[in-house]
Give the backbone structure.
Amino acid sequence: MSQFCELAGNGSVELCAPLQRLKSEHTPLRIQMDNLYELSVSIEKENEIGRIKEKLLQLRNGVIQFVALLDPHSEKEEGVLFPMVANYIGKDVGPIYVMEYEHDQAKGNLRKFLEGTINLKECLTISELFQITELYNRAYHVLQEHFLKEEEILFPMAEKLLTNEEKKRLELHIGTV
């Protein structure tokens, strides 16, 4: 793993425009997921089932909007950036493996949360409603750490590994800031 850390540098790497765009996309995603996390924490403080369901419906609507922003972002990474970097470092171990695994974890928890909140009119216990809320919280924590790893390790590593030609191809697929 130390060779990957060396490739990442000390975090002071200036990123090319498409990598900077991916990094800058994290800001609105973070803001949205932080707001949703505050709502999820407030749900866990409730003790009245009707109020919990009401807030869960708000959280569900927010998660739907969040996923609509997250999916195109993660597709740029999974479909373009990760394969380019994997050409240099492989994808079965190391940063690309971890990034893809974390994408799967976060998306899986968000999907299960949305499935669990489809029909809140059913008779669910407070405990079951809290378990559904916890699915969002898990996705939130995975994504918090994931964004940090991308910003501090993956993006600087990609900046150092990718050729100018590859960065131009990346720009065609991702765009710039």
